[in-house]
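Re: weekly structure request thread

Next one in the queue (383 aa):
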Amino acid sequence: MSRIARLETFANEFVAFVRVTTDDGAFGWGQTSTYNADITAQVFHRQIAPWALGAEAGDIAGLVRLIERKEHKFPGSYRCRALAGLDTALWDLKGRQEGKPVVSLLGGTPGRLRAYASSMKRDITPEAEAERMNRLIGEQGFDAIKFRIGAECGQDVDEWPGRTEAIIAHMARAFGGSVEMLVDANSGFSVRRAVEVGHLLQDSGIGHYEEPVPYWELEASAEVAAALEIDVTGGEQDWDLATWRRMIALHSVDVVQPDVMYMGGIARSLLVAEMAAEAGMTCTPHAANLSLVTLCTMHLLKALPNAGKYLEFSIEGDDYYPWQRDLFLGTPFAVEGGHVTVSEAPGWGGEVNPEWLERATYTESALDSFRPSAYGALYHKRG
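Done, posted below.
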């Protein structure tokens, strides 16, 4: 029975990778949630590592529950963002130990997985958005695309006047009947405006309407969902299981979209997927950048009995997300024919770039002489 002996983070402002090592020398790689990741790394070493050190490495869900109880006075987003680093590293460790991909540990099978091309841009004209989507369809074979409408938390104020109606009409003319279309409003509308836009989306052949109203207003989202035939989707920001239970009970959305990293890892994301399955709902997780979140979500989707039709795949490159550059060796999530491939390699099937790690801020928490006690730990940091 191997126990966790060392936990290391390699962090900058945007990304924090986690390496877990057991007392028998086995290791695995994970990642905390992106953005303010340097702060999340501090939370990880202060509030996650002390409880994880000395614990059995194989009981991932049990360890996550233990840390939630021990840190019950800090039930917020940062705790979950930090927990994701531990959880995802332990799944990778387990896969490497057993010589299996994580998807197999979760009861699924490796192989091809359909993806949709997900735009993150609003400062783009309808014509330019359609042009780049058309190019990606030709180059990478996507048969589903998502574009942005409204303004992020915009309170009915569009990115610029008339953009929402213009891009819906233009994309429908350009792609209607040839690819599936999805939109994301990022909490941009009031109920009245959201329903108005929803009818326009339905009439335009668009089938996925993400976060039409402020995501924290569950009753408002339920009102929109009840008024429309289009799938209303959401949940990417949410981490609290009580909120998820309310969301599903209210039918605030038709499709749940937990984010593996915001949720605190695979174990907690599975709980949301299971809640949704019991309610007859689909789970299409959020994965908005090409860090480890996309690779983890690939494995998760291939294992869920109530998985959605496709993986969210960000089409934004290093010009939009410069911090994505050189995170991994090779391309663990290349798109061919509109699909990515979950490999048969052990763990996540991707390797963190050593040169990126060399540039990161390094912090270590380790057992003192591998003593199996929660607080028998050494804490070391170098910038």
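The longest strand covers residues 4-11. The CA atoms of residues 202 and 230 lie 6 Å apart.
Next request, please.
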